[in-house]
Design goal:
This is Nucleotide-diphospho-sugar transferase domain-containing protein. It comes from Symbiochloris irregularis. The radius of gyration is 18 Å and the shape is globular. A two-stranded parallel sheet has the order 1-2. About 30% of the residues lie in helices and about 10% in strands. β1, α2 and β2 form a beta-alpha-beta unit. The two termini are about 30 Å apart.
């Protein structure tokens, strides 16, 4: 008998999933696969559009938005996290987003999250 719901999620066996990678840098997919070959994910590569971020119209003269310390790539990343990412995940039917930076790591194995535990927020 197949387990469903919370009982199915309590298994420590690796589950197949999808990891979406958005990057303009060629070769990043091969690097990720080499570095994280133990992950049980099918990786889907999608090109990040070149014009996903622009200075908001009402902030055109603001030094905060146009300061040289904020590079275009950083602004695009912020815009993706606050806008496109949520719509993308919701459209695909995902109830959660786990976002990792290049310097993110897990200090110990993750053995599954239970819905409603308070540690995960739905979109």
């Amino acid at each position: 008998m197949a387990r469903t719901g919370a009982a199915a999620n309590s298994s420590n066996a690796p589950r197949q999933g999808h990891m979406y990678v958005f990057s303009k840098r060629p070769g990043i997919l091969a690097e990720l696969r080499a570095a994280h070959c133990q992950l049980q994910y099918s990786t889907i590569m999608a090109a990040a559009p070149g014009k996903t971020w622009r200075t908001p119209e009402n902030a055109r003269n603001s030094s905060i938005w146009t300061a040289k310390r904020f590079k275009e790539a950083y602004r695009r990343m912020g815009h993706w996290r606050l806008t496109f990412q949520l719509d993308f995940a919701t459209t695909l039917g995902y109830p959660y987003i786990l976002q990792l930076d290049l310097d993110s790591y897990f200090p110990e194995p993750v053995h599954g999250a239970t819905s409603g535990s308070g540690g995960m927020n739905k979109l």
